[in-house]
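Quick one, tokens below:
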């Protein structure tokens, strides 16, 4: 095929391709009309993680005390709450995950408190699982991988030796009490920056999407959201509106695909629901 001067000029004058737009997250309207946000009870000013149980209960927890709240997903109202231990446990709690009838509450130094959902006003017993991760890893994200039954733990801090410049997600096998020493997947922070306005990306939560069969990873530092497939391959990313999300800490999905993000606040925490439209 002979390339003429007019063909070359036409090619050069094509609109520039916006790679960030091409790799946006589909199915959600992140503008002003695609979400519903509510202020939470002052007890949840320092709300941290979110999870949805197999029975459809939306659970949240406090950042420093072992108190778990059941919330209404639309109004954010507290429906019930229970505490861990005969004397309420105090820890740096970061995220919560449901696996069958068990709940796992994660600390920043990689320990897992294991318990069952309690009655309103009640107290529950718990066990502690230790993992090889520690304070240097600053573990903030936790979710169940339904395909394997493992718990995935996203590190805000050190990804481990040999993984400089990456953000690591490790797989923990709760039944065996062991962790894979190689990350389940790695996120290249440098590659993500063009899609999140050049910001750093430090994970604060991870969640499994029940319809898309992908993982979403939320970052409070960077105020961004990333989607990867089951093998950790990049699917999309976007920067969130910092006016709506001053400190996004928790992430969960309802069975219909609606996305829930919780933010800590100076006076009130917030719960934001993004409606899923890719059905």
């Amino acid at each position: 095929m002979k390339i003429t001067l007019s063909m070359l000029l036409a090619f050069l004058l094509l609109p520039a391709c916006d790679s960030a737009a091409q790799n946006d997250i589909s199915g959600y309207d992140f503008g002003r009309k695609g979400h519903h946000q509510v202020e939470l009870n002052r007890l949840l000013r320092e709300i941290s993680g979110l999870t949805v149980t197999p029975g459809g209960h939306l659970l949240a927890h406090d950042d420093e005390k072992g108190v778990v709240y059941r919330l209404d997903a639309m109004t954010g109202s507290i429906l019930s709450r229970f505490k861990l231990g005969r004397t309420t446990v105090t820890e740096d709690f970061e995220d919560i995950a449901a696996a069958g009838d068990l709940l796992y509450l994660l600390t920043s130094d990689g320990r897992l408190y294991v318990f069952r959902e309690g009655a309103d006003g009640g107290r529950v017993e718990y066990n502690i699982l230790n993992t090889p991760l520690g304070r240097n890893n600053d573990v903030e994200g936790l979710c169940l991988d339904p395909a394997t039954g493992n718990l995935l733990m996203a590190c805000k801090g050190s990804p481990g030796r040999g993984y400089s410049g990456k953000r690591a997600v490790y797989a923990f096998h709760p039944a065996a009490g062991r962790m894979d020493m190689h990350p389940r997947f790695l996120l290249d922070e440098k590659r993500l920056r063009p899609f999140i306005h050049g910001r750093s990306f430090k994970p604060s939560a991870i969640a499994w999407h029940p319809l898309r069969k992908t993982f979403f990873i939320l970052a409070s530092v960077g105020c961004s959201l990333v989607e990867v497939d089951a093998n950790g391959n990049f699917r999309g990313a976007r920067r969130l509106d910092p006016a709506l999300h001053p400190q996004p800490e928790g992430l969960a999905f309802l069975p219909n695909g609606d996305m829930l993000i919780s933010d800590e606040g100076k006076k009130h925490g917030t719960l934001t629901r993004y409606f899923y439209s890719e059905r």
